[in-house]
Amino acid sequence: MRTAAAIALAAATVLPARVDAQGIINPTAKTLFTWRDAALAGGFVVLTVAMFPLDKSLATRLQDSSTQASHLTKNASDAVQFIAEPGALLIGVGMYGVGRVAHWREVADLGLHGTEAIVLSGAITAVLKGAAGRARPYVSGDTNPHDFRIGRGFGNGGYKSLPSGHSTAAFAAAAAVTSESRRWWPHQQWIVAPVMYGGATLVGLSRMYNNAHWASDVALGAAIGTFSGIKVVRYSHAHPNNFIDRALLHTSIAPVSSHEARVAWSAAW
Questions:
Q1: Is there a domain that residue 22 lies in?
Q2: Is residue 178 domain-resident?
């Protein structure tokens, strides 16, 4: 499908960060925004704008009775959505907890930074949803993708279409996991990136299939999520003593006696 291919292609422009001689990302690189980010942002802007003229025709096609006839597709669509939201957040928190308890630095990093990316992108998306006040496809009886009203989305779920929150969460998780795995497991990138971004694209398509979002909603959600994931991981590793990492990754609880414990901070694991 053209929408899926376009979103996956835009996400694929996330190029590898600078690496050292061993193939590990250089944690001292402190540049938060690069020319690659500008190229990626431009690609997503073009994609989102390009989707507006196609919103109505894609929605009509996906809601056709023959397309909606498959119970297997409907069930799969619901499952994919659940994995993205709230699944992505639950998985991230769970991975952080397991990593901390088992002293797996890589897993704890991935879980924490993935969760941060989802929360950050979710906050941005919530503000935009409320401000744009775009009607969801199922609300627009005449399938009108141009039904916007500033501020209408605050407190009214039927008018929170732009951008797609599920797509935002899915792409935030995909970008964070891909960026973290590039740091810890660089030789597995050829597997991790297609799986994560491919799964995120399926989430966006499922929201369109369920008549909850327009194609342009998904494209913008993918952009916000991808940028959030990339920036959270890049910033966190360039500034390892930032408040969140210092509080949640560099603290430990050690028993002092049978009645008390001590919280300690360490710069290294």
A1: no
A2: yes
* Cβ atoms of residues 235 and 24 within 8 Å: no
Q: Is residue 93 part of a domain?
A: yes
SS3 string, 216-244, reads HHHHHHHHHHHHHHHHHHHHHHHCCCCHH
Tokens read off for 112? 């924490």
Selection from 194, 217, 198, 169 nearest residue 58 by Cα: 217
Q: How many domains does the chain have?
A: 1
Range of the domain at 115: 2-14+35-238
> Considering the domain boundaries, does residue 261 fall inside one?
no
What digits encode the pLDDT tens for the residues 128-165? 999 999 999 999 666 789 999 999 999 899 999 999 99
CATH code of the domain in which 210 resides: 1.20.144
**Cβ atoms 168, 224 nearer than 8 A:** yes
Give pTM, 2 decimals: 0.84
Closest CA relative to residue 222, chosen from 22, 1, 41, 34: 41
Q: Find where tokens 């491919």 sit.
A: 198
Query: What pLDDT digit, counting tens, does each position of 187-241 carry?
Result: 888 899 999 999 999 999 999 999 999 999 999 999 999 999 999 999 999 998 8
Consecutive H or E run containing 71: helix 71-84
Secondary structure letter of residue 40 according to DSSP: H
* Contact by Cβ (8 Å): 164, 213: yes
